[in-house]
Structures are given as C-alpha cells and as structure tokens.
Design goal:
The chain is an alpha/beta fold. It has 2 domains: about 40 residues; about 300 residues, Metallo-beta-lactamase, Chain A. It has 12 helices and 15 strands. The strands form 2 sheets. Strands 6-5-4-3-2-1-14-15 form an 8-stranded mixed sheet. The longest helix has 21 residues. The relative contact order is 0.13. The structure holds zinc ion (2 copies). The site of one zinc ion has 5 residues, from loops.
C-alpha cells in the first residue's frame, strides 16, 4: 500500500515536472495555441430551438466584483438576438458565451444610466467586425438619440481607421454608425414569431425608464431594468415564464453605508443612501411575482453586488428558496409551447 502511494506520488510529480517544462517549449506552445484558436474561433454557441435568456451582466455599480459584469440580458432564438442594456464588462461576457453578434437585431436600453450603456461601443464594433451588413438599431425611450449620437461621434475616428485598414468590403461603412430608434411604450418590435413590448417602470427621478417583455412561441421573458417594485411591471409580467428583476438588499446596504459613515466616507455614504429609493427592495418582489403568475423570478442588477458566497447568502436573506440570484453566463432555456425552464 505504502509503496503504491509513493509510486503514484512519484508519477504525478514527474508528470507535473514534464508538463511545466513542456509548456515552455516553442513547438508545444504553438500546438496548444493552435488548438485553442480552433476551439475559440471554430465554434459558436449552439442554437437552442426556443427562447433563451442569458445573463451577460448581473452587477450594479455598487461594489466591485470582476466576476460580474454590469447590467445586460441577452435574448436569443434561432431567428433573433437582442441585448437589453450593455453595461461595463458585458461585451466580455457576450464574447465568452460566443453569442451570434453577426446577427444582432438590436440593443434595447431600459434607461441611460452609465451602468446600462457603457458597453455599447464594443458591442457595435464586435457586431460590425463579425459581419453585420447594416447599421445597428439601438432602441430606447426618449433620450436614446442623444446617447447614440454621442457614441457615434466619439468613435468616428475609430471607424475611419478601421475602414482604411481593412477595406470597405470587409467593413461596410454604412454599418459602422448606429441608428437610434426612439419609441413610446408599447410594442417595440414584432415579426411572425416574436413580439417585444416595452412598459414604463418606476426609477424616479429618472424618466422615462422602461422594462421589456419578449414573447416567442408561447414562452415569455420579462426584464425590469432599474425600478422599484412596480404595479405596471407586474401587470406586464402576467404569467411570464421568467422575470429578471433589479434588486436591492437592505440588510447588506445598511451595513455598508453605516460603515462608510463611520470611517469618514460621508460623500459615498450619502450616495449609497440616495440609491435606496430607486431600486426594488428584494423582499417586496416575491409576493407580487407570485400574484402575477410568474414562473421563475430571477434577481439581477444586484445592489450591492455580492463579492463572494457569504455576501450572496446575505443577499438571499428573507427570500424563499425559489428565487434565483443571477450569475453571469447563467442561461434560461424555454422550449416552445411548454412549461419547462432549463437552467444552467
Ligand atoms: Zn438606473
Ligand atoms: Zn443601474
């Protein structure tokens, strides 16, 4: 027995040694690089035959956690691809999930706080480079034209450099700048199988702020954007399969702001205090979701952003076991005309 253990340890040590040396040899590095590139660029996320929602950002601006991007939910079907908000780091998540940027139908903004729009330029560029042939539509309530015009202006030189470098065949110039699509709440986008409806939410003093409902082949996903618990939202979310809702955990936030005040950070303590009245207290959502017949409530845009398992546990205090705290890259797959929700 002892001899076997010694033998096993010796073999493992030898393999580790050989491995660590081999990775420094140029031919081995070249081989590994080639296989990695084939895997990354040769694959794309398999297309699910139904409605899929992918968390491309679960964080709020409050709290620093590089493992969570800021607000972003992707809605994907075999024929559609929409992004609802693209906060900081969300483009990295979109690339990690190998989402089909070449067929992006549009970005839909809930409102124009920086944590919802900061990733727009990278998404536009990634989609253009990926092969989109027409200008990217960016949907939003009043104000979206200002945001789109600003991004288009800021990246004008970048577009010029890239067209000069790669040529107009590879990067059609008309597909570079984005197009703002301003809407009034109601049906925003529709074809034979998909209807996207927007509705006002309560993010006072920010107005307008909207949420979205996606209906596809008998399945539905609702995305809140930033809001207090809102009757309007739960009216729009009647019998929805999945609702992604902004959430604030008072138990964590209260400790955070009193600690900030105690160590003399009164400015940031004041800002954190101001945040309380325009996000949904996590404990106010489950009853409303149940009353609306929502199948699965998922909390995202977490205020404050949990940084580890313990702070996630704190966030869940007082919630039933059925509510999910979103993680980046978590995927909710809804087969057509069914009750099933596949979560991975
Ligand atoms: Zn906001
Ligand atoms: Zn926000």
């Amino acid at each position: 027995m002892t001899r076997r253990v010694i033998y096993t340890v010796a073999v493992l040590a030898l393999l580790t040694l050989v491995g660590s040396v081999a990775y420094r040899l140029p031919p081995v590095q070249d081989f590994v690089m080639k296989r990695g590139a084939q895997l990354v660029f040769g694959g794309s996320a398999e297309t699910f035959d139904g409605l899929q929602a992918v968390v491309c950002g679960s964080a709020s601006p409050l709290g620093t956690n590089p493992d969570r991007a800021q607000a972003c939910i992707a809605v994907v079907t075999p024929e559609h691809f929409f992004l609802v908000d693209v906060g900081a780091r969300a483009p990295m998540r979109i690339n990690q999930a190998q989402m089909p940027l070449n067929r992006l139908n549009g970005v839909m903004f809930t409102h124009f706080h920086s944590d919802h729009i900061a990733g727009l330029a990278d998404v536009n560029l990634g989609s253009w480079v990926g092969g989109r042939q027409e200008s990217l539509n960016v949907y939003g309530p009043e104000g979206v034209a200002t945001v789109v015009e600003g991004f288009n202006t800021a990246y004008r030189l970048d577009r010029r450099y890239r067209i000069a470098h790669h040529g107009v065949d590879l990067l059609p110039p008309a597909a570079g700048p984005m197009t703002a699509q301003t809407f009034e709440p109601g049906v925003v986008w529709q074809d034979d199988t998909m209807t996207v409806t927007s509705f006002l939410v309560d993010h006072k003093p920010i107005h307008p702020a909207v949420g979205y409902r996606f209906d596809y082949k008998g399945r539905s996903v609702v995305i809140s954007g930033d809001t207090n618990a809102s009757d309007n939202l739960f009216a729009a979310a009647q019998n929805a399969d999945v609702v992604f809702h902004d959430a604030l955990a008072r138990q964590s936030l209260d400790i955070m702001r009193s600690s900030m005040a105690e160590v003399g950070r009164s400015r940031i303590a004041q800002i954190v205090t101001d945040v309380i009245d325009y996000h949904a207290d996590s404990l106010t959502l489950e009853d409303a979701a149940n009353a609306a017949g929502v199948r699965q409530l998922v909390l995202y845009h977490l205020v404050p952003t949990p940084v580890n398992g313990m702070t996630e546990d704190m966030f869940k205090r007082g919630l039933s076991g059925n509510t999910i705290l979103a993680h980046d890259l978590q995927t909710f797959s809804l087969p057509p005309n069914s009750d099933e929700i596949i979560i991975r």
